[in-house]
Amino acid sequence: MTFSLEGTDASIANALRRVMIAETPTVAIHFVRIENNTSPLNDEMLSHRLGLIPIVYRGDVRQLNSNRDCDCQGNCARCSVEFELHVRNDGEDTIEVTSHDLRALSDMAVPLDDETLPRGILICKLGKFQEIRLTAIATKGVGKEHAKWSPVSTAVFQYEPSIRLNYRLLDELSPQDRQNFVGSCPARVFEIQDGRVVIPDVYRCTYTEECMRWAEQVGKPDLVTVKQLEPPRFRFSVETTGSLKPAEIVQSCLITIQEKIRKIEDLLVTKQEEQQLPQ
Amino acid sequence: MPVLLDGRVCGHIHTSMGMPLVERLRYLKATDPKKVPQTLEIGISPPTNPHALPAVYMHSTLARMMRPVKYLPTGAIQLVGSLEQTYMEIACLPADVNPHTTHMEVNPTNILSLVASLTPFSDFNQSPRNMYQCQMGKQTMAIPFYSPYRSDNKVYKLQTPQKPISRTRNQDEYLMDEYPTGTNAIVAVTAYTGYDMEDAMIVNKSSFERGFAHASVYLTKEFPIQDGSATILSIHHPIIRSSNHHRVPHLDDSINVIVKIIIINCIIKSSIASSNHQLHHQIINCIIKSSIASSNHQLHHQIINCIIKSSIASSLHHHCILLASQHARRPSGDIISIISINCIISINCIIIRLQHQFILSFSLSSLPSMRGGHRAVRRWYSNYRLDGTKIEESLDDDGLPKVGVLLHKGDPVCVIVSESGDVEVNRHKIAEPAYVENVMLVGNPSARDAEPYLARVKLRLNRNPVIGDKFSSRHGQKGVLSFLYPQVDMPFTESGMTPDCLINPHAFPSRMTIGMLIEAMAGKAGAQHGIPMDASPFQYNNNRGLPDYDTSHPVTAVDFVGEQLRRAGFSSFGSETLYSGTSGRVLEAEIFFGVVYYQRLRHMVSDKYQVRTTGPMHALTHQPIKGRKQGGGIRLGEMERDSLLAHGTSFLLQDRLLHCSDEHQAYVCSRCGSLLSVISRPVASESTGAPKLAHVCRLCGPKGIVGTVTIPYVLKYLVNELAGMNIRLTMQASHV
Ligand SMILES: [Zn+2]
Ligand SMILES: [Zn+2]
């Protein structure tokens, strides 16, 4: 998902990015009880791989209790989702254990099932007579604590570049040189339409400054200037691991920021009250 | 000079003819394989060489190292052995060919060894760095083997390895992808926080959490069923094991056992030699009398052996065997009975006449002690005492742990129960918790009672990266993990990438590992295009800008890789604009950003850290002992002392060298100044009459004035040592 952000500066844009990566709560497998594991992977590695599988929670993740603060003993439905994995290879050929084999014990959550991954996410392979039997408990957490709870694969913003072409100097170039100028940009920002150099999408620019370097080489340093737009405008791209939809991530991120601001607000109010009390 | 074939001289040839002979043979080897086999090594050590005997050496045997080179006269590929090649002219490049050159390398990379040939772009590096990499390549945590049954003492295993993107041809040649040694890491070369100073390396915490450089150490602990250093040998041959044990004489007379044995041996030998039966009889009787009196096993063993030997020689079979069986009946020990039985049996084969007799004595005497097999006391692996009660709750019935459990320090690992009811519990001794990887019982299946004599427990220690662990690229650039930095705080690129690790640009100017920079660019291009990159040395033109620049030769590596980067939409120099993870603002400088294959080295802090507050002290000096294993301290040496003095921190110095070391309250007589003359003796207290200790000077008697001084305990030791050399050290002590 992409969206643009205007009327603010890098601090807000970066806050959004940081909260999306590190403070958006999701559900991921956190406890694994292994009953039998004769697979080639050892228990820690198997558990680690299970933890990294994106879990899609069907309810509102934010409403889920944190397992640590929940008043239950161990875990309960208010703070966790249980999964079961039992695969045994009785055949001759090696089989794959994937996220499809991970069975949720409640209908509140499922491991990621995406049409781009028809076979699921590979956990392990099993040889003849090898077996994995385990139960796993998924809990709520944030990416700050462990990367497995981070819902995004990329959350990044780009500064909108301001690319100024000097058309007077461009017109002085031979058509071949113009072609070379267009080719100088590795990100292919420039294109030639009807003999004129145009910029179809400024966001293609990655500030490599190869075009400026080219211009300097041919002795026309004023041919092109690449700067950040002033005041800045940002384009966000958010890709997800699958545990949340991109829009949900942004929504959740905004709520988290709101909560943080409210907390500061509350603190300020109490501080004010404290100061007024003695009078 | 001699001509040798497979180490045997097969003829001589005039020295001047040696070289022509060899040349002729090599020519025939290339042209006529029927006359001279392809695998024949034809070496000549010239008479000018002072270190080897001048000769023609030829080898045709199996299993010799040989390598292919081009034979210039015919252009064919010829196999060259390790001895002959030291005296051969093998050119590396066509330019190196001179009139004496006979051979040429098939590929210039053949001058490199296996480990050296695995360094990508090694021709761009300063040579000492390639040497360092050859050392470090052997210290990597990797996939060492695939057999789960091996029980090596200590094995390091990387759990999340990858094939390198930048690879040399030998990487495939030697199947190195089956045994990968590292991970392709996204590396940014920048001084970001200061945590990457002095070769430190910042690792992305999220990369670590996703499995970057996760590794384990496998330890195998052995628990033999017999105490001490029992081995297979000792169990199958208990005599060998016992032979060194009873050296202390426990004799009926004062002669040393060993001496006695020698004497007896001599007697026996001479008696065998003599044909006088009368004498023989006497000698043997004499020996037997003395041996019965002695209770020493070693002696018994020897004597019985002697008897047997002599009995075979003499006609006194009957007599001897009776004596031997008497010995066997003695209750002094199992070893003796085993030996006697062995003896009896060996004679049995010779003298069938006496069979009945000794079988009778055999069964009478030895059966009880034979029941335990060859062992003195039978022992076995079990979690139950003789009365059937369980010993360790956490262990299985066989006294061994369940596979997969986590063991902490002090947890039981192996229980051995003995016939006599003794229980031996072996515990997990290392401070680090460990998982049980597998449990093996070792026995001899061909033995009559195939009972295990050894239990092997393979443990798995989790060694995921922690601060202080060592990493290195393949260019002799090692560094220590200094910080697991949160992903959001790491700098990010335009496309949203965060690096796996950050290294400091100061690692490059002095070390000149340009190969690493090119590897970073090549790795980045390879990752973008989805192709492995050939990083074999000597394939690019490195002479651009030089007079002999050959334009027909392929382009330079930077141009080649730069073009690939450009096509992938990157700057052709591998640098990118990065944004600060904390503020979101652009970092002014372009930052070099690429993919470098990083190796985890097996030097880990968990094996090296040393901590001590108080702990074991040396008995003689009362100073802290040294050594990490014993919980000792780290020496504050003379140079450290100098620097503390120079800083003027004298209280700190006193704290280190006295209070935290061997501080001691010593008694000193201030009249004579001696630290040694003060003795304590019990006297009755004047007021209560209760006994108490009084300290008096033995030299001055009642005139002495005894007080205490605070000294390092070693001073007292020094004074003692000096006194031993007739040097008196006195203190001028006075009451303050
Ligand atoms: Zn709960
Ligand atoms: Zn005195």
TrEMBL record, chain A:
<dbReference type="Pfam" id="PF01000">
    <property type="entry name" value="RNA_pol_A_bac"/>
</dbReference>
<feature type="domain" description="DNA-directed RNA polymerase RpoA/D/Rpb3-type">
    <location>
        <begin position="1"/>
        <end position="267"/>
    </location>
</feature>
<keyword id="KW-0240">DNA-directed RNA polymerase</keyword>
<dbReference type="InterPro" id="IPR011263">
    <property type="entry name" value="DNA-dir_RNA_pol_RpoA/D/Rpb3"/>
</dbReference>
<dbReference type="InterPro" id="IPR036603">
    <property type="entry name" value="RBP11-like"/>
</dbReference>
<dbReference type="GO" id="GO:0000428">
    <property type="term" value="C:DNA-directed RNA polymerase complex"/>
</dbReference>
<dbReference type="InterPro" id="IPR050518">
    <property type="entry name" value="Rpo3/RPB3_RNA_Pol_subunit"/>
</dbReference>
<keyword id="KW-0804">Transcription</keyword>
<dbReference type="Pfam" id="PF01193">
    <property type="entry name" value="RNA_pol_L"/>
</dbReference>
<dbReference type="InterPro" id="IPR022842">
    <property type="entry name" value="RNAP_Rpo3/Rpb3/RPAC1"/>
</dbReference>
<dbReference type="InterPro" id="IPR011262">
    <property type="entry name" value="DNA-dir_RNA_pol_insert"/>
</dbReference>
<protein>
    <submittedName>
        <fullName>DNA-directed RNA polymerase II subunit rpb3</fullName>
    </submittedName>
</protein>
<dbReference type="InterPro" id="IPR001514">
    <property type="entry name" value="DNA-dir_RNA_pol_30-40kDasu_CS"/>
</dbReference>
<comment type="similarity">
    <text>Belongs to the archaeal Rpo3/eukaryotic RPB3 RNA polymerase subunit family.</text>
</comment>
<dbReference type="InterPro" id="IPR036643">
    <property type="entry name" value="RNApol_insert_sf"/>
</dbReference>
UniProtKB/TrEMBL annotation, chain B:
<keyword id="KW-0539">Nucleus</keyword>
<feature type="domain" description="DNA-directed RNA polymerase subunit 2 hybrid-binding">
    <location>
        <begin position="115"/>
        <end position="260"/>
    </location>
</feature>
<feature type="domain" description="DNA-directed RNA polymerase subunit 2 hybrid-binding">
    <location>
        <begin position="388"/>
        <end position="630"/>
    </location>
</feature>
<dbReference type="InterPro" id="IPR037033">
    <property type="entry name" value="DNA-dir_RNAP_su2_hyb_sf"/>
</dbReference>
<dbReference type="Pfam" id="PF04560">
    <property type="entry name" value="RNA_pol_Rpb2_7"/>
</dbReference>
<dbReference type="Pfam" id="PF06883">
    <property type="entry name" value="RNA_pol_Rpa2_4"/>
</dbReference>
<feature type="domain" description="DNA-directed RNA polymerase I subunit RPA2">
    <location>
        <begin position="11"/>
        <end position="67"/>
    </location>
</feature>
<feature type="domain" description="RNA polymerase Rpb2">
    <location>
        <begin position="632"/>
        <end position="732"/>
    </location>
</feature>
<dbReference type="InterPro" id="IPR007641">
    <property type="entry name" value="RNA_pol_Rpb2_7"/>
</dbReference>
<dbReference type="InterPro" id="IPR007121">
    <property type="entry name" value="RNA_pol_bsu_CS"/>
</dbReference>
<dbReference type="InterPro" id="IPR007120">
    <property type="entry name" value="DNA-dir_RNAP_su2_dom"/>
</dbReference>
<comment type="similarity">
    <text>Belongs to the RNA polymerase beta chain family.</text>
</comment>
<dbReference type="Pfam" id="PF00562">
    <property type="entry name" value="RNA_pol_Rpb2_6"/>
</dbReference>
<protein>
    <recommendedName>
        <fullName>DNA-directed RNA polymerase</fullName>
        <ecNumber>2.7.7.6</ecNumber>
    </recommendedName>
</protein>
<dbReference type="InterPro" id="IPR015712">
    <property type="entry name" value="DNA-dir_RNA_pol_su2"/>
</dbReference>
<dbReference type="InterPro" id="IPR009674">
    <property type="entry name" value="Rpa2_dom_4"/>
</dbReference>
<dbReference type="GO" id="GO:0000428">
    <property type="term" value="C:DNA-directed RNA polymerase complex"/>
</dbReference>
<keyword id="KW-0548">Nucleotidyltransferase</keyword>
<keyword id="KW-0808">Transferase</keyword>
<keyword id="KW-0240">DNA-directed RNA polymerase</keyword>
<keyword id="KW-0804">Transcription</keyword>
